[in-house]
Structures are given as structure tokens and as C-alpha cells.
């Protein structure tokens, strides 16, 4: 490791110890050329991502957890496991390449919703209802609106016209 003060490549490790709950090694280095001291950290490159929940609590990101939440939303829907597998891998890769060590749970939720919206409308509504916790009817309308704008338009018809004739009642037969 090159000395940051004099650029000498002759630096030595004075001591090294685990730190940050054993996710990193801290090395104290010394430069014999200029007597400079500095510290380096060694970390695993395979990133450990943390999910920041709405409460502010942080939990390690788990691929299995993400997979299960999507699997539940897609239960009994015509989507193969292999497709779910690919969807989850894609999401994880995007999160990893994002470069952030801490990811808000809301970011993950939005990503999943985006993915499900294109995959299966029913799964999308299921996931959204759990994720968004539908606090009021407007939230639900928003999600349904997203789907309706994709095409199918349901207009309730009660066939009111058919009943009109009945108002005249059964024919009255007079007896004489
Ligand atoms: Zn130096």
C-alpha cells in the first residue's frame, strides 16, 4: 500500500484487527520513509446489503425473503417458478449494482410492484395491498386504476330495461 504522504511503496502493517462486527479488518500502517501513519480497511466485496424498514430498523437483505413475498403474491397464478426465480435474480442484481449498502424497504417494494404490474395484474394487486397497507379506499382505487388503464373496462349493467314491462302487472281477468 502506497504511503499517502510521500508516495513510498515501502509501507508496513503495524497491526491489524477485526472491526465493524467482523465485517472489516482495520490495519494500522506505518511508512518507514517519512514516518507517516495511516489506516486501511479491508472489506468483503460481495456486498452485504441492509434493508432500512419504515420504522428505521435495519435488517440484512435476504434474497429468500424477497422471493417468498413475490411467491405469495403469485400463488395459484399461471406463472412458473423459473420465471419468479429470474425476476428475483434481476431485482437482486439491480439492488447490488445500485451500489448502496443501505436500501429503504420502500425502494424494494416499488421495484417489486413495477415488476409484478407487467407480469400478473392479480399478483400486483395482492402485493400492493399488503405492501401499501391500503390505508384508505383511494389507495386501492389508485392501484385498480393502474390496471384498468391497461385495457379491460368493466361497466356494470343491471339490465334495467327488462324489468320495465313488469310494472303493468299481471293481466287482470274479469269475471262476469
Ligand atoms: Zn511515507
Topology of this structure?
Layout: E1 12-19, E2 24-30, E3 37-43, E4 50-52, E5 58-60, H1 63-73, H2 81-97, E6 102-104, H3 105-119, H4 121-131, H5 137-148
Parallel strand pairs: 4-6
Antiparallel strand pairs: 1-2, 2-3, 4-5
Helix pairs in contact: 1-2, 1-4, 3-4, 4-5
Characteristic key phrases:
alpha+beta; 2 domains; three-stranded antiparallel beta sheet; three-stranded mixed beta sheet; 6 strands; 38% helix; elongated; binds zinc ion
Short description:
The protein has 176 residues and is α+β, with helices and mostly antiparallel strands. It has 5 helices and 6 strands.
Please describe what this structure looks like.
The chain has helices at residues 63-73, 81-97, 105-119, 121-131, 137-148, and strands spanning 12-19, 24-30, 37-43, 50-52, 58-60, 102-104. The strands form two sheets. Strands 1-2-3 form a three-stranded antiparallel sheet, with no helix packed on it. Strands 5-4-6 form a three-stranded mixed sheet. It contains five helices and six strands, in the order E-E-E-E-E-H-H-E-H-H-H. By secondary structure, it is an alpha+beta fold. The chain folds into two domains: 8-44, no CATH class; 46-153 and 167-173. The longest helix has 17 residues, at 81-97. A hairpin with a 6-residue loop joins strand 2 (24-30) and strand 3. Residues 151-169 have low confidence and may be disordered. The site of zinc ion (ZN) has 8 residues, from loops.
Amino acid at each position: 500500500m502506497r504511503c499517502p504522504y510521500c508516495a513510498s511503496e515501502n509501507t508496513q502493517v503495524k497491526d491489524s484487527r477485526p472491526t465493524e462486527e467482523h465485517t472489516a479488518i482495520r490495519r494500522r500502517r506505518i511508512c518507514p520513509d517519512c514516518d507517516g501513519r495511516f489506516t486501511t480497511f479491508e472489506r468483503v466485496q460481495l456486498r452485504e446489503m441492509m434493508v432500512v424498514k419504515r420504522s428505521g430498523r435495519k435488517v440484512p437483505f435476504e434474497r429468500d425473503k424477497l422471493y417468498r413475498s413475490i411467491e405469495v403474491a403469485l400463488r395459484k397464478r399461471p406463472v412458473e417458478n423459473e420465471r419468479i426465480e429470474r425476476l428475483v435474480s434481476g431485482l437482486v442484481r439491480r439492488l447490488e449494482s445500485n451500489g448502496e449498502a443501505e436500501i429503504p424497504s420502500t425502494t424494494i417494494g416499488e421495484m417489486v410492484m413495477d415488476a409484478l404490474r407487467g407480469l400478473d395484474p392479480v399478483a400486483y394487486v395482492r402485493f400492493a395491498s399488503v405492501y401499501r397497507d391500503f390505508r384508505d379506499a383511494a389507495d386501492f382505487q389508485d392501484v385498480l386504476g393502474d390496471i384498468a388503464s391497461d385495457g379491460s373496462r368493466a361497466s356494470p349493467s343491471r339490465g334495467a330495461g327488462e324489468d320495465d314491462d313488469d310494472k303493468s302487472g299481471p293481466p287482470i281477468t274479469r269475471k262476469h
